[in-house]
C-alpha cells in the first residue's frame, strides 16, 4: 500500500498550500482525484512520486538507489517530459527494453522510433510517455491531467489501453482530472482534494 | 553553418600533417650555407649554423600544435568533469566556484610560469600548467548550462526512471554541452599555443633541445641586431597566422551557436 501520512507543504514559511493531508491507495486500486485549480494536486502528485519533498509528513514508498521509482508520474505536457534531442527509440529505452505488448497496446508505430519528439503530435508523444513509464514496471502510477489536451476519441482509446494494463499488472492508479465524467467512468472511488487535505 | 568556417581547420590539419612528415634529420648543420636570406633554395632562409629555417619552423609548428591540441582536449575534459562535479553537491559547487574564481583572478602567464616551473618545466610541465590555467573559464560556462538543464523535467524524470548521475552525465548532459565544449576547445587552442611559446621564449617552458617556436624566437633574438630578420620573422608570422585562423573559426562557431542553439533544433540536420 502507498500511503501519505500527515503531509504539509508550504509555499513559503507562513503560507501553507495544504496541511495534514492523508491519503492511501492499494495495488490494483483506481482512485480519482478532483479539486479546484491551484489547490495543490500537481504538487501532491510530485511529492508522491518523489519529485518534491513535503515540509512535514512521510510518504511510505521511496525510490531505491539505482532502481526506478515504484511510483511513477505521468505529466500533463509530454513535450517537456522527453529530451528533445533524443529519438523516440532512445526515449523509450531510458526506461528499459521496449516491450512489444505495451508498444502495440498504445499504438506506437515502428516508424516513430526514428523520429524526434517534436516530430510527433502531442497525443502520440503522450502515448510514448505512458509506455515509457510502464516499462519500469511501477507498482503505482499517478496520471496528472494525462489526457487533457486530447480529443475525446483518442482520450477514450488511451484510457482503455491504460486501464487494461493497470488491471492486468495490478497497478495502483491515481487519476487527477477536472473531468468528473471521465473519473466516474474509470475510477472505483473519487476523492476531492479538500476531502484529503484538511486545510482550515 | 557556413562552409568557410571549416577552412581554418582544414588548413591547420594540412599544416600539421606536412610538418609531421618532415624528417628531423634533414635539419642538418651545413656551415657553408650559414645565414642565407630567404630565397628559392631556402624559403625562410638559414640560421647561423646553416640549418633550413623553413624546416625548423615547420617542426616548431608541429610541436606547438601538439601542445595546443593536447592542452585544449585535456582542459575541455577537466572543465566538463569539474562542472559535473559542481552540480553534484552544494559544497562541491562552492569549492569549484572558489577555485575557478581564484584561477581567473590570477594572470594566466604568472600562474602558468609558477606551475610549469614547480613541475620542472619540459613538455609535461608546460601541458599540465596550461591545462590548470585554462579550465576555469569553460567550467563557468558549462556550470551555468548544467544548472539550467538540471531543472528540466526530462532530466528529473531520468532519475525517477532509475538512471544514475554518470549515466545522465553521459546521455543527457554531454550531448547538450558538446557545442559549448567545442567552442571552448577552439578558444583554448590558440591561447595554449601562444602561452606555450611565450613561456618557452622566457625560458620556463620546453627545453632548448626541442624545436619549439619559442626556442627559435629566443635564439633569434641574439641575431636580430645583426640584421638577420628572417630568423624571427617567418616563425613569428606562421604562429600568428595559425592563431588568427583559429580565432576566426572560434568566433564563427560561437555566433552560430548563439543563434541556433536557443531553438534546440540542431539535431535535425
Ligand atoms: N515553485 C513554486 N513556487 C511558488 N509557488 C508554486 C510553485 N509551484 C506551484 N506553486 C503554487 O502552488 C499552487 C498549487 O499548484 P499546483 O500545480 O499543485 O495546483 P493544481 O491543483 O495542480 O492546479 P491545476 O488544477 O490548475 O493543475 C499554485 O497556486 C501555484 O501557483
Ligand atoms: Mg496541476
Write the layout of secondary structure elements.
The complex is a heterodimer of chains A (200) and B (269).
Chain A: E1 2-12, E2 15-25, E3 30-34, H1 41-48, E4 56-59, E5 71-74, H2 88-93, H3 100-105, H4 122-135, E6 140-144, H5 152-168, E7 172-176, H6 180-186, E8 189-192, H7 193-196
Parallel strand pairs in A: 3-7, 3-8, 5-6, 6-7
Antiparallel strand pairs in A: 1-2, 1-4
Chain B: H1 7-21, H2 53-88, H3 90-105, H4 108-118, H5 122-134, H6 136-150, H7 153-160, H8 165-202, H9 213-224, H10 230-260
Bound molecules: adenosine-5'-triphosphate and magnesium ion (MG).
Word description of this protein:
Chain B: This is Peptide/nickel transport system permease protein. Chain B: It is found in: Cell membrane. The complex is a heterodimer of chains A (200) and B (269). The longest helix of chain A is centred in the C-terminal third of the chain and has 17 residues, at 152-168. A 5-stranded parallel β-sheet of chain A has the order 5-6-7-3-8, sandwiched between helices. By secondary structure, chain A is an alpha/beta fold. Chain A contains 7 helices and 8 strands. Chain A has helices spanning 41-48, 88-93, 100-105, 122-135, 152-168, 180-186, 193-196; strands at 2-12, 15-25, 30-34, 56-59, 71-74, 140-144, 172-176, 189-192. With 269 residues, chain B is an all-alpha fold. Chain B has a single domain (44-264), classed as MetI-like fold, CATH 1.10.3720.10. Helices cover 72% and strands 0% of the residues of chain B. In chain B, helix 1 crosses helix 2 (53-88) and helix 4 (108-118) packs antiparallel against helix 5 (122-134). Chain B is elongated, with a radius of gyration of 22 Å. Residues 260-269 of chain B have low confidence and may be disordered. Magnesium ion is lined by residues 41-42, 144-145 of chain A.
Amino acid at each position: 500500500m502507498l500511503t501519505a501520512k500527515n503531509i504539509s507543504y508550504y509555499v513559503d514559511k507562513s503560507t501553507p498550500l495544504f496541511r495534514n493531508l492523508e491519503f492511501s491507495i492499494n495495488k490494483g486500486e483506481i482512485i480519482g482525484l478532483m479539486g479546484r485549480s491551484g489547490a495543490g494536486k500537481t504538487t501532491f502528485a510530485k511529492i508522491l512520486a518523489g519529485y518534491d519533498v513535503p515540509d512535514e509528513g512521510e510518504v511510505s514508498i521511496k525510490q531505491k538507489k539505482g532502481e526506478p521509482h515504484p511510483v511513477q508520474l505521468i505529466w500533463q505536457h509530454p513535450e517537456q517530459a522527453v529530451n528533445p534531442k533524443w529519438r523516440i527509440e532512445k526515449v523509450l529505452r531510458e526506461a528499459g527494453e521496449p516491450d512489444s505488448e505495451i508498444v502495440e497496446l498504445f499504438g506506437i508505430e515502428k516508424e516513430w522510433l526514428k523520429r524526434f519528439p517534436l516530430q510527433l503530435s502531442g497525443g502520440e508523444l503522450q502515448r510514448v510517455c505512458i509506455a515509457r513509464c510502464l516499462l519500469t514496471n511501477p507498482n503505482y502510477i499517478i496520471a496528472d491531467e494525462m489526457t487533457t489536451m486530447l480529443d475525446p476519441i483518442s482520450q477514450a482509446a488511451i484510457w482503455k489501453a491504460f486501464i487494461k494494463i493497470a488491471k492486468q499488472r495490478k497497478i495502483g492508479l491515481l487519476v487527477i482530472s477536472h473531468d468528473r465524467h471521465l473519473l466516474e467512468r474509470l475510477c472505483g472511488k473519487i476523492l476531492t482534494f479538500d476531502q484529503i487535505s484538511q486545510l482550515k | 553553418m557556413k562552409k568557410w568556417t571549416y577552412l581554418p581547420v582544414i588548413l591547420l590539419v594540412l599544416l600539421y600533417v606536412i610538418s609531421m612528415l618532415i624528417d628531423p634529420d634533414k635539419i642538418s648543420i651545413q656551415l657553408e650555407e650559414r645565414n642565407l636570406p630567404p630565397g628559392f633554395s631556402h624559403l625562410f632562409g638559414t640560421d647561423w649554423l646553416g640549418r633550413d629555417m623553413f624546416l625548423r619552423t615547420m617542426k616548431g609548428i608541429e610541436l606547438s600544435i601538439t601542445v595546443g591540441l593536447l592542452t585544449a582536449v585535456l582542459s575541455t575534459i577537466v572543465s566538463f568533469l569539474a562542472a559535473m562535479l559542481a552540480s553534484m553537491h552544494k559544497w562541491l559547487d562552492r569549492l569549484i566556484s572558489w577555485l575557478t574564481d581564484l584561477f581567473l583572478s590570477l594572470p594566466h602567464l604568472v600562474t602558468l610560469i609558477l606551475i610549469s616551473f614547480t613541475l620542472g618545466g619540459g613538455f609535461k610541465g608546460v601541458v599540465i600548467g596550461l591545462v590548470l590555467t585554462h579550465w576555469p573559464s569553460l567550467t563557468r560556462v558549462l556550470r551555468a548550462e548544467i544548472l539550467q538543464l538540471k531543472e528540466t523535467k526530462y532530466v528529473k524524470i531520468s532519475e525517477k526512471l532509475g538512471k544514475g548521475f554518470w549515466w545522465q552525465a553521459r546521455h543527457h548532459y554531454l550531448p547538450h554541452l558538446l557545442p559549448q565544449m567545442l567552442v571552448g576547445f577552439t578558444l583554448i587552442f590558440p591561447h595554449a599555443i601562444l602561452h606555450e611559446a611565450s613561456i618557452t621564449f622566457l625560458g620556463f617552458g620546453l627545453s632548448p633541445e626541442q624545436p619549439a617556436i619559442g626556442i627559435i624566437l629566443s635564439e633569434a633574438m641574439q641575431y636580430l641586431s645583426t640584421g638577420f630578420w628572417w630568423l624571427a620573422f617567418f616563425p613569428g608570422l606562421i604562429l600568428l597566422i595559425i592563431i588568427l585562423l583559429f580565432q576566426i573559426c572560434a568566433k564563427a562557431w560561437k555566433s552560430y551557436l548563439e543563434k541556433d542553439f536557443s531553438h534546440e533544433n540542431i539535431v535535425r540536420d
